[in-house]
Amino acid sequence: MDIFALRDQLVDDYREFTGSFVSPRDERVQALLAERLAASEQWPDPWLSLNPSFAPGGTPSELVAQGLLHPECERIFRIKTGPDDPGRDQVVFHHHQRAAIEAARTGASYVLTTGTGSGKSLAYIVPIVDRVLRDRDAGVGAGVKAIVVYPMNALANSQVEELRKFLGFGYPPESPPVSFARYTGQEGPDERRRILAHPPDVLLTNYVMLDLVLTRPDEREHLVSAARGLHFLVLDELHTYRGRQGADVAMLVRRVRDACEAPGLQVVGTSATMASEGTLAERRRVVAEVASRLFGSPVTPERVLGETLVRATSADTPTSEVLLARVKEVAAGSLMPEDYATLAADPLAAWAENVFGLERDVDEQRMVRPRPGRLSDAARRLAEETGAGAEECRTALQAVLLAGSRALHPLSGRRLFAFRLHQFISKGDNVYATLEPEAQRYLTGRYQLRAPDQPGKVLLPLGFCRECGQEYYVVARVERDGQVRFVARTDRDASGGDGVTGYLYISGDHPWPADPVSAGRLPDHWMLEGPDGSMSIAANKAKYQPSAVRVLPDGALAGPGEGMSAWFMSTPFAFCLRCRVSYEQVRGNDFSKLATLDQEGRSSAVTVVSASVVRSLRSFPTTELPADARKLLTFVDNRQDASLQAGHFNDFAQVTQLRGALYKALDAASGGLSHERVAQAVTDAMELQPADYAENPDAKFSAAESAGRALRGVVEYRLYTDLKRGWRVTMPNLEQVGLLVVGYNDLPEIAADEETWERSHPALRSAGTQLRLELARIALDEARRVLAVDVDCLTPTGYERLQRESRQHLREPWLLADTDRMEPVGVVFARTGSSGSS
Questions:
Q1: What are phi and psi of 406, to 5 degrees?
Q2: Are the C-beta atoms of residues 485 and 555 closer than 8 Å to each other?
Q3: H/E element holding 378?
Q4: What residues form DSSP beta bridges with 359?
Q5: Distance from C-alpha of 258 to C-alpha of 94, rounded to nearest angstrom
Q6: Contact at 8 Å (CB) between 100 and 110?
Q7: Distance, CA of 185 to CA of 193 (rounded, Å)
Q8: DSSP of 202-223, one letter per residue?
Q9: Are 67 and 124 in contact (CB under 8 A)?
Q10: How many degrees, rounded to 5, is the angle at CA 531 between CA 528 and CA 533?
Q11: Contact status, residue 513 vs residue 521, Cβ threshold 8 Å
């Protein structure tokens, strides 16, 4: 799998997403945004870290022979592929895992501070399993011997799967060698009752649930009593417990020790990032001090266990001449060796390991992991050493890293280079401008309060009309020291309308006129025609007009003849002063009206990034990436955020599927699709199988036809609601982006038929065919976008029938559930509007 290609595709997809928010009208702003995108400020070069090779610590058989492990461990710790696989090959322990096994035998608390991917979990699971087996041989009664505490349920869930492989695979389901259970609050009532009735040897939980176990009567009666004399308490990801949370966990450890009557409790901690400054000895001392306070028991620096690294490639340092020749060969397209031994001897592979995988600690004379580095920096360094071009070096380094990720050790199965990319993506900052004429104002894409070297010029954020791209200063009108001034506003609240929060409009080529009514600058539906034919603004719209002000470069309100002309509009944003697009929404915020470049829609951004990754994973052939490895894991703060994101992603997937099928169906139909045929055509274009949508995919005859009919009905309903006036700001429908045009039967003929218009308003009677056609289309489009469409699925009776049929025949995500509510449907009346109405 080419992870670099995946990264580039991800960045391209996110660039298209974040670059489509708005098209600024000002050419200087456009140039600034283009420069910012070209500089990749929102997605800098990724950091690359290489999992190094670890010194071996022996196999379970070897440790059993030395008396360090119970004999059954030889059977348990094997590489197993399924429930019936006893495992042919044994696990090969790392040196630090062996050190942890030896430390556990002393009974003293210890901390394992090894890097990511170093097998920290096995370093405490093996001693726990060994102790349980030895206690059983010694006749010690059943009960909870170890509690493992994870900061996140996702980590506990992952560990359950790993334990199942070792302790479940190859053993009868009813008699595992060591029992374990997850107790985190995710379990159902039956599972909780089973755990309380039969406490496991090893309990996996989180610190919040462990606190509840100590306080709830049922748990105290069953789990706490079963844990009397507890041997191990493991705190995974120790670095997460800091500040107040760290104090809570420290007290929890002491309460567990007291409640379980375990004065000799052995506390084990694991972390990859406990301390990062100073020498190894200094870091061990700091970790030991922190762990001692957290555990409530002494941890000596000798009990802070680190990793022992060894080289995977040749120990020879390649010369510049050898490296240059190799870079030229690889950059020219020479294939990298696939054999592990051959690649390990490659000079370019040795150089890459020296940069990304290993460095020597001068104080302790041992190999340690270097800090993650950027591929671009490494390419420049290689170019300096060899004299080759930086791009050649980058190509060569990518090739050797990818080859190393595919080369497997013939015995251990370990990859020569197990590396990862850390790509940081940000939403970016806004555009800020000084209060000056458009041609000379200072523009920047970085948050600042004042223009550089010009403290008298305030920088204010810009918002852009989503229709025409006209810029507005996002400001608040405040009074300080008796002077009114405009200051930057970072909130998006539009519920005020009190003249405090608002926007400043400054334009040299299209200034706001003193009499906007006669200048025709106000939205048409704001205007009222008097008996004498004169036009005036409706009373309920007058409050939304901008007010003329004069401002100084520092944001202060200026007097007559001073400063620069501007116009202040109070929130909410009622209409654009350039393109005249107007909004009737008076509550909520202005996000759907004005775009600010520091708001991309967090859920939408995560969905776009996730979809890009999943799409790339699916594109790789199975020879490069097995089907079961095509997964994306996303961490969120809490269940609510996870549910919100899952719902957003599901909605995105279904909307995209429908729109893609609609586009495909329209592309295949040269003359377009009528409303009678569109649902069938879109359903056919999706090419769904019964298993994708039918509650009973094996149904035949009339049942299968009913399921197909229900699916077409749901598709029709979804198509109509998607054509509604778009509320998805970051996901406009096909019509809004110009990929779909909706027409109306016989409308050109109706517009040209004079007899049809004989009894209409004189203005329509005398209008030309083209004007009638345009007006009729506008009216029908407005009606359609509020779903004032006479179709069965948009009637209460039709929707109820469709909902009932979908519940009977369809499965998620195609059924209309009981919790779904019919989209509000508009009704159009042909009548004269009242005075002041819109």
A1: -100, -20
A2: yes
A3: helix 375-386
A4: 368
A5: 35
A6: yes
A7: 12
A8: EEEEEHHHHHHHHHSHHHIIII
A9: no
A10: 65
A11: yes
Containing 62, the helix (H) or strand (E) segment is helix 60-65
Spatial CA neighbour of 405 closest among 3, 117, 46? 3
Strands 432-434 and 547-551, by their bridges, are unpaired
Q: What are phi and psi of 461, to 5 degrees?
A: -70, 150
Helix (H) or strand (E) holding 648: helix 639-668
In sequence order, the β-bridge partners of residue 463 are: 472
> Which residues, in sequence order, are CB contacts of 428 under 8 Å at separation 6+?
18, 36, 41, 42, 445, 597, 598, 600
Type of residue numbered 164: R
Please list, in sequence order, all residues whose beta carbon lies within 8 angstroms of the beta carbon of residue 533, skipping any fewer than 6 positions away.
none
- Give the other-Cβ count within 10 Å of 527's Cβ: 14
- What integer pLDDT is reported at residue 315 of this predicted model? 74
**For the chain, how are helix, strand and coil distributed in percent, rounded to 5?**
40, 15, 45
Cα–Cα distances in angstroms (integers) from residue 367 to residues 181, 311, 344, 780, in the given order: 38, 9, 18, 74
pTM of the predicted model over 0.85: no
Alpha-carbon span 45 to 767, nearest angstrom: 61
Within 13 Å of residue 526, how many CA atoms lie on the same side as its CB?
Answer: 22
**pLDDT one-digit tens code per residue, 247-305:** 999 999 999 999 999 999 999 999 877 656 767 788 889 999 999 999 999 999 999 99
DSSP 657-668: HHHHHHHHHHHH
Question: Who's near 177: CB < 8 A, 6+ residues apart?
Answer: 72, 75, 76, 129, 133, 167, 171
Residue with tokens 């030991």: 288
Report d(CA 815, CA 243) in Å as an integer. 48
The pair of three-digit structure tokens given for residue 795, joined into one six-digit string: 């009637």
Residue recorded with tokens 């996702």: 154
Number of residues that this document lists for the chain: 838
> What CA–CA distance (Å, rounded) separates 683 from 210?
51
Residue from 539, 497, 430, 523 nearest 836 by CA: 539
DSSP state of 99: H
Q: Which residue has the tokens 């009913």?
A: 706
What pLDDT is stored for residue 274 in this prediction?
Answer: 61
Alpha-carbon Rg for the chain, nearest whole angstrom, is 34
Determine how many CB atoms are found less than 10 A away from the CB of residue 648: 18
Tokens standing for residue 461: 């954020």
- The 3-class secondary structure across 777-820, one letter per residue, is HHHHHHHHHCCCCCCHHHCHHHHHHHHHHHHHHECCCCCCCCCC
User: DSSP assignment of 224-252, as one string?
Assistant: IHHTTT--EEEESSGGG--HHHHHHHHHH
> What pLDDT score does 836 carry?
43
Q: How far apart are CA 722 and CA 572, in angstroms?
A: 26
Amino acid letter for position 354: N
493-521 pLDDT, tens digit each = 444 555 689 999 999 999 999 999 989 89
Is the preceding omega at residue 513 within 30 degrees of 0, hence cis? no
Whole-angstrom distance, CA of residue 207 vs CA of residue 269 = 14
Containing 309, the helix (H) or strand (E) segment is strand 309-310
Backbone angles phi, psi at 432, to 5 degrees: -120, 145
Going by C-alpha positions, the residue among 333, 355, 356, 330 that lies closest to residue 343 is 330
Question: What distance separates the 2 farthest-apart alpha carbons in the chain?
Answer: 109
What is the Cα–Cα distance from 205 to 236, expressed in whole angstroms?
11
Which neighbouring-strand residues pair with 53? 310
Give CA–CA dist 338/634, Å, rounded.
Answer: 32
Q: Tell me which DSSP letter residue 627 carries.
A: G
Side-chain half-sphere of 14: how many Cα atoms within 13 Å? Answer: 27
Instruction: Output the CA torsion 561→566→569→573 (10° steps).
Output: 180
Instruction: Kindly report, residue by residue over 650-668, the tens digit of the pLDDT.
Output: 888 899 999 999 999 999 9
